[in-house]
């Protein structure tokens, strides 16, 4: 714990964890919500498809949306600047 | 001879409209969900141990390291989607729901479930090794993502075949 808590007080770690929580919630909630809302309001409500057809199209769109969100997730993780702590510094810390 | 043929046709029709057809359809729904959930659980647990052991040293890499868990979660979403779609089609056996429908939904559930199981296993093992390597060498990130995407796509193939089988 003595190691963990200072790590979470670190600003970079905090922003990483915050972003992680937001993206994780988005990737869980958005596809499920979009699937059922698209079925109810777009395909059944506006286009007037049958329940079976509309759930199929809504599901396909939900899966596509999942991959778009995943793409954003990976992009955000990729763009996160590589921290200055390199392996050499870790060795120095261990020596200290 | 004509009566024999009529009787044969009647028996064939009765066999096609079997009352146990929904059994196979429901079993397909069940398999789609439980096998993908099992694969997803294995992938989450296996890559989770790797993330836990690398995050002690590098908690700032958590955003990069959590990607195997997200991908394993998506495999379970495939199973959920197929289960929801197929379960809407299960009906009492009869002219509206022949044994053919039951079997094709059974096959749809199995193909989605077992592809998801395999994808989850692959994500778990590759993700575990990948995040451990990531803590030593952050430039491995792109390689890990590629490996995970190729594992993930296996589950997607299963879902596509399941939608074709179960929804038509």
From TrEMBL, chain A:
Ranges that cross the membrane: 20-43, 55-78
Keywords: Cytoplasmic vesicle, Endoplasmic reticulum, Membrane, Transmembrane, Transmembrane helix
Family (UniProt): Belongs to the VMA21 family.
Organism of origin: Plectus sambesii
Signal peptide feature range: none
GO BP annotation list: vacuolar proton-transporting V-type ATPase complex assembly
Topological category with respect to the lipid bilayer: Multi-pass membrane protein
Domain of life the protein comes from: Eukaryota
GO cellular component: endoplasmic reticulum membrane; endoplasmic reticulum-Golgi intermediate compartment membrane; ER to Golgi transport vesicle membrane
One Pfam family here: VMA21
Localization of this protein: Endoplasmic reticulum membrane; Endoplasmic reticulum-Golgi intermediate compartment membrane; Cytoplasmic vesicle, COPII-coated vesicle membrane
Stated name of the protein: Vacuolar ATPase assembly integral membrane protein VMA21 homolog
Function recorded in the entry: Required for the assembly of the V0 complex of the vacuolar ATPase (V-ATPase) in the endoplasmic reticulum.
InterPro entries: Vma21
UniProtKB/TrEMBL annotation, chain B:
Broad class of where this protein is predominantly found: membrane
Domain of life: Eukaryota
Keywords: Hydrogen ion transport, Ion transport, Membrane, Transmembrane, Transmembrane helix, Transport, Vacuole
GO biological process: lysosomal lumen acidification
Record membrane topology: Multi-pass membrane protein
TM ranges: 20-44, 65-86, 106-128, 140-165
A GO CC term attached to the entry: proton-transporting V-type ATPase, V0 domain
Family designation: Belongs to the V-ATPase proteolipid subunit family.
Role noted for this protein: Proton-conducting pore forming of the V0 complex of vacuolar(H+)-ATPase (V-ATPase), a multisubunit enzyme composed of a peripheral complex (V1) that hydrolyzes ATP and a membrane integral complex (V0) that translocates protons. V-ATPase is responsible for acidifying and maintaining the pH of intracellular compartments and in some cell types, is targeted to the plasma membrane, where it is responsible for acidifying the extracellular environment.
Protein name per the record: V-type proton ATPase proteolipid subunit
